[in-house]
Design brief:
One of its GO terms (cellular component) is plasma membrane. The protein has two domains: about 210 residues, no CATH class; about 260 residues, no CATH class. The protein contains 20 helices and no strands.
Length: about 525
Amino acid sequence: MSSLGRASAVIAAGTMVSRVTGLLRSIVLVGVLGSISQAADAFTVANQLPNSVFQLISVGVLTAVIVPQIVKATAKPDGGGPFISKLFTLGVVVLLVCTAIAMVAAPGLVWLATSEKQQELRALAIAFAYWCLPQILFYGVYALLGETLNARRVFGPFTWAPVINNIVSIAGFLALGAVFHEVPRSAASWTPQMVAMLGGTATLGIALQALVLLVFWRRTGLSLRPDFRWRGAGLGTVGRLAGWTMLMALAGIAAGFFQSSVATTASGAGASSTVLANAWLVFMLPYSVIVLSIGTPYFTQISEHAAAGRHDEVRADITRSIRTLVFFIMAAIAAVAAATFPASRVFSSNLNEAFGAAPVLIAYLIGLLPLTILFIVQRTFYAYDDTRTPFWFTIFQCALVVGTALLASLLYSLDVIPVTLLAAGVALGQSIASAVQTVIAIWLLHRKIGGLQIGSWMSAIGRFAVAAVPAGLAGWGVFLLLGGTAGWTMSGQLLGAIGTCIIGAVVVVVYIGILALMRAPELTVAGSMLRRFLPGR
């Protein structure tokens, strides 16, 4: 547990810094483009295209397939070096081909992700896409290097590298505002020079993020060289496993494109793609800092135990990891819920934009607990080289995502919901679909390996909920004491951030206090992990 605690601390620290600088990046971008504007939505759509392909690579191949295979390969007498060289060579070739295909298909990809009612937005998004899509190559190299470092228990660089991207992006966005002064919010007013400066900055940041990982490669103890001798290297197993996960990730991308096309209907009039992306950033901050930092070392350990056939230890890992993750994530849910309005103000250029963004954040927040549990459950399937089962329960989730987005669009067209709540409807559908997916995934994993001690999880979740509800209410009370929606926490982006921190701190103190009174056993584990952050630890 001490090694897991140290690894979690390193990952959490890097993730926290990278996420905070990522939030600053988004704040600067909102300051330049706004959050409810055609220009902001066009850039968001284009810049999410390489992100979508990255998710296809990362979720579809790396997390599901590569990490368990590298863990197995490094246990061999040769340390796995030759296998990893062949794997990297093949991976870079595939990335180059995918990038070229995406560049050719850029207009079609943008067409799928935008509403036909927003032709000017589409044209600008296509122009941005040609600058942003080369990120696919750099995202893929970053993921290949980072996941290999993780599999070799070198956890820090992968989580710290995005800080470089964020710093470069912040500098580029500020330069855009300085050079062009009043950056237009309308899509029709953008010039090629503006497009090149914004899109080029975004891609340069991703390239540097990938290249910096090469500095840390020596820590793996592996040699890395081009090797095109793929036959007989065992890559067939990788391809077989990756087939299901690639299909799964493709389904997720298709569902995301449909959500985006529905949301962009509201571009310029209400919350749309940019607000969805910024709300997702806030949503992902606790997920990344808590779930990824604690869950990633557990996934490596689960993969090792599964590969060795130590199934009882796998079950114990699942129980410990879920209870530990939920302990932290429940406090985060209460804190973000209480601070929804000031947190939304951070990513809005004015008060009305914040009011439009708050319902979107709340809608996403509903899915945070299910996604936390799903992280461990889904990766346990991957540890057992089972990528087919996650494909089927993810396909079901994607169908629900599309169905709920279609329902939101229908309700808007019938004037049941206003344009200002269209994006919130899309986000709520995402959360509902994730909750249903998680329930099905738990049931299927229980059938596969049994002994998941689900009752232990549920009693722990109930205990955490008992503490989280009054803690959240205490935070909401502080928000009201600070003036509520008419108070100083809503008067500016910086003040919104300060207010969010104050409210969040109150929620965490009350939450821990209640659990201490209840003598919750998880406090001991959480305390030992948090002590890893102290100087000298």
